[in-house]
Every structure is written in C-alpha cells, then in structure tokens.
User: Fold these one by one.
Assistant:
Number 1:
Amino acid sequence: MKTKMSKILIEKLKEELIQLHLTDMAHGLEGILKEAELERQGYLAFLDQLIASQLKARTERSLERRIKKAGLSKLMTFDTFDWNFQPALNVEYVKDLAELTFIANFQPLMILGKISTGKTHLANAFGIKACQAKYKVQFYTLQALLKKLYAGIADDSTDEIIGMLARCDLLIIDALGFIRPKPEYPSLILELVSACRHRTALIITSNISFQEWGQVLGNPSITNAIVDRLFDHACLININPGRSYRTQGPNAPQLNPHPSNQT
C-alpha cells in the first residue's frame, strides 16, 4: 500500500511540476529520489539536487540557443582541437586568449594560416567559449557577410545591418581570401570595421597575407585603411608555416607506398 501511495504521489508531483513549467525537475524526480534514498540524503540536500537539475538543463538549453543563433558549430571546440598537430602554433598564447580578455578589451584577433590549418576551428572555438560566457556572438564567412551587406544597399538597410553587427560582443569573420569581389565590398568592410572599433571584438581568419588583401578585395587604398584600424591593438595567431589537416591530418587519405602490380 505504501509503495502504491508513493507512486501515486510521485505521479502527482510530476504533473504539478510540469504545470509549473519545471519539466526537467519532473523528468528527473524519480532518479533523484532513488539517489537520495540510497545516500540517505536530508530533505534540503534532496531539494537542492532537484532544483540543480532544472537549472543545469535550462543553462544547457540557453547555451544551445546562443550557439545556434550565432551560427557556430558545436563540434569545433577547444576540447576537440588537436593541440599537437601544428608545430608552429603558440599553444600557450592561444590558451591565454581563450580567457577572452580580448573581447572585454574590444580587441581584434587575427588568425592567419594556409588552407586547412585549423583557423576556422580556432575561431569557432573562441565563439563557443564566448557563448558559454554569455557574450553575444555572430559568425559569418566573409562572402556571406558581404552578400548580406551588399543586399542592404538595395533597400537602404546597410547602416542598420552594420549597427546590429556592431552591437555584438564578438563578430567572427571567416575565410578572408575566398570572395567574389564587387567594387562596393572594400567600402562596406571599412564601414563595418570602423563601426566595431573600440566597441565590438572581431575575429578574422585569413589564408592570405595582409599585403594580398588589397588585391583580393579590389581596392588597395581602402584595404590599407581597413588594416590600419584592425591592427590598432590587435592580437595575432600565426599558424604559418602550418600542416594541412586535409592532406596530413589523421583522417587524410593514405597513399599506398607499395602499390600492387595490376594486369
């Protein structure tokens, strides 16, 4: 009878918790009750654990939403980064930057390296860390960002878009070097960088040198002004020379040094 009454009471509590929008507490109630009985916990310890389960689940969902809204990949974190793969990488410096002081100081962070050396992974990992710290983050490839800004010219919303981006705590711009240039692009980038200066931290990844930016963007004069603003108290991660994950990483295709003769 006691067991039957307990089950009825547990189901009643679960229903009431759901009505109060405490779904995670409802789902975890029986498991936490069993653990409390095994460990002979007091009432306060049991209640603390029950409430903690709700707070943990809510925090995890909030982080998931921030990561998704930022356009980040959950898979590219510092935990999944191979710290031993790039001999040229200053690991200690990167881990110092992962404390995110550069965001609080509104500093640009430049990540340079050849194709497939881990630049995007590092940029994404900084973004995930910033989301965990409850910073407002946005991630774009340069081509996608320029397309968004250029589209705003048609309806005169470019200034509004730039203002919205400059209100982020961290704006990540990936893959400078892969764009289909338009004459308006350099000016759009300059406007964005100027709006973010001393207000929003930037992370920019590039597989080309700063000297080549003018050639790629199409206006060396404006590009020089962009570089000047970015290098005002900027941080730099240089992965040059770097190994390619695509051709030398653990998942790279393996060549057979002794192919069998075929007839």
Number 2:
Amino acid sequence: MQPRDRAVFLALIVAQAAHSLEEYLFGLYEVFAPARFASNLVSTNSALGFAALNLLIVAFGVWCYVYRVRPDRPSARYWVWPWVLVSLGNGIAHSTLAVVRGGYFPGVVTAPLLFALAAFIGLTLVRSSRSSRWAAV
C-alpha cells in the first residue's frame, strides 16, 4: 500500500472512533435491537457493554494499522478489506435507517465519512490489484 493509502486507512479508524462515539452518545443501543443484543452479551448495562464493544473495535483497528498496515506488511490488504466492507455497509445502513425513520438515527452524521473513506480505499485496492496482475503478465 502507498503511504497515502495507509494514511487514509488511519483516517478510517479515526472516523470509526468518532462514529462509535456518536452512536454511544445518542444511544444506538437503546433504539437498535442488534446493538442492544450485542451490548447485553457483554454487560447487563447496555451502555457499558456498547462502550466496551466499540472500544474493542477501535483498538483492533489501531492494531491493524500499527502492526499490519503502517509497516506495509504483504498481508496488509487482507486486513484492510474487512474494514472497507464493514464501513461501506455501515454507511449505507445508517443512512437507510435515517431515511426510513424520517429523521436522525444514531451514527448517521459520521456514516458518510466512513463510506467515503472506505470507498476510496476499496477503489485503490482494486486498482492496485489490477495493475499488479497486468504487470505480472
């Protein structure tokens, strides 16, 4: 991955942290049954469980960046793709839920940023994969 792409991945992790904070502050775990279910697997206090799960998600993102993406390990792209796919889905889901609800839905403000960063990284990965295949021919 190019240095710019690594920086964009780090921005995606920072955006995920902001997204998690928005979801927490506006109580996603109170209005979205899957979030409540996952939170209650961790703690009987939904807010605490939700915070713990999101801290783990962001910590895992930081780990991916520090130990796989930043040092440009050969496996970096395999660690980045799940983040791309989940962030694209997250961006679409939050936006869709806000439209269906007819107003604000926790996480919708930061969801477009997740989507845009993930789309950029995804397109970059696809392009670099295509160019490296052609170079091998």
Number 3:
Amino acid sequence: MNAFAAVSNNEYGTVSEVDTVRFQRVLPGPIERVWEYLTDPEMRATWLAGGPIELRSGGKMELHFRHADLTTPSDPCPPKYKNMEGGVKLAGRVVRCEPPRLFSHTWSGESGQESEVTFELTPRGKEVLLTLTHRRLSREAMRSVAPGWHTHLGVLEARLADTAMLPFWATYTKLADEYEKRL
C-alpha cells in the first residue's frame, strides 16, 4: 500500500491497488445529512456535480460538473481545462444503493473507460467517516481523478462544516502537481 502524507487536516488518497485510489474523511454528521450531500442532485451540485439520479441499483444517473460554481471569479480555470469551463456531463449507473451507508456508481472516463466510485459512510458519534474508493482507473486517469477527488472532498468538508472553501482551481492545480510526484 502506498500511503501519502497529510496536507493540513486533509490526507492524500492512498493507492491500494494499481488501479484504485481511496480517500477517508471524518465529516460533521449526522449520517443522513452526509448521505443527502452524496445523493441529492441539488446538494451534490454544491460540492461535486448536479444531475438526475435514480436511487436504486441499476438506476441511471448523470453528473453535471460546473466547476465555476465551486470557486470565485478570481480563481480562473487553468488552460488545460478550458474545454470544461462551460460544464461537463458524465453518464453512469447506480451499482449499489444502501441508504444511508453505501452508494456506488459507474463513472465514464474521458477515454471511454468505465470506472467505479463507492462511498461508504460509518457513523462515529456526531461525526461520519466517509470512505471513497475509485476503482478500475488507468494510470493516466488516476493522475486527474486523485487531485480532483481530494479537491472536491475539501469542498464537501467546507459545506458540511459551514466554513469558507479554498479556491477550487488553485487548490486542484497545487494538488495535481503533488499527486504527479507521488504517483
């Protein structure tokens, strides 16, 4: 297992298998509230991506990414991602849905490769342990996905704690450089 060192209160993802990255975060609860942020399209849009979802195994889902909504005007989109500036949509399907503890769905990658994202929630008193595992990633996809999840999870933490967020693109760019070294 390749564990990464901590950055502030956020830990880097760990590469548990050649095609898998895993993150853990302790979040403010209760578990039902965190579940809503994972599965309600409007709440999910505040930290990751909106889009319709059929909350059942085999259900269809879409992720509508609008990164501009997750940052400030003074945090411009990097040139590498200008093609995503107006938004990006990914289609997927729900693999497992066990409210409020487990949610898994497919993720369509840029190269057409389908990977799988699993969120596991475990209550810890007033807090919730979130374990996010993204499987079946190519090495190239992992270079983009790992800093992306790290940044998006920081936004989720800020939303749940009702604290200020770091600028999305500046944070992502810094983390992308760090993950490139670590991967």
